[in-house]
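JOB MANIFEST
job_type = single_chain_structure
chain_count = 1
residues = 215
[input]
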Amino acid sequence: MTVMKICCIASLDEAELAASLGAHAIGLVSAMPSGPGPIADDLIASIAAEAPRHLRKFLLTSRTDPDDIARQVMQAGTDTVQIVDALLPGSHARLRDLIPHVKLVQVIHVTNEQSVREAESLASDVDALLLDSGNPLAAVKELGGTGRTHDWTVSRAIVDAVKIPVWLAGGLRPENVADAIDAVRPYGVDVCSGVRTNGVLDTEKLAAFAAAIPG
């Protein structure tokens, strides 16, 4: 069964709504160079502490220094960190030493076949990969939340190439999530803007998204 992560959670009410409609995990977005959903670090910590216990809590960070990331994760109190930018070699090992109890999820911004090689090179360093549609080379970095899909054949090649869980993000919505799952066969799907209206989590869209995920 494909699990569901609802990202850009902005309040405890949104976390509880996500949980009530079958979410396995939530994403709490800290400061980013662009994109929707960032909230203050103290609000992230509050939601992580009070959200339903069964939810995995992902802290999304654009920081790249492992010591800095570790401090942020410990302040947030999340069980997972989603690293949305590339790190220097050795950084994931340093994070393992600093926060051994926290799951490491590295984002791969899928562009072309090079993304498959990037995923293969990182798979032994992290607990999971998350495939998104950002553009880290843009003048203002896009590190997620673009609302764009990417080439799912590349994403499927990544799923087939690695032995760790792979989450699929990028432009997912109720109308295309079943096709995305069929094409990629990810461990989980991750959605932000596709289940929101004017930036607010939309109960009907979220319910439709959850219903479209094959059981």
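[summary]
The longest strand covers residues 103-109.
The two ends are 6 Å apart (CA to CA).
exit_status = 0
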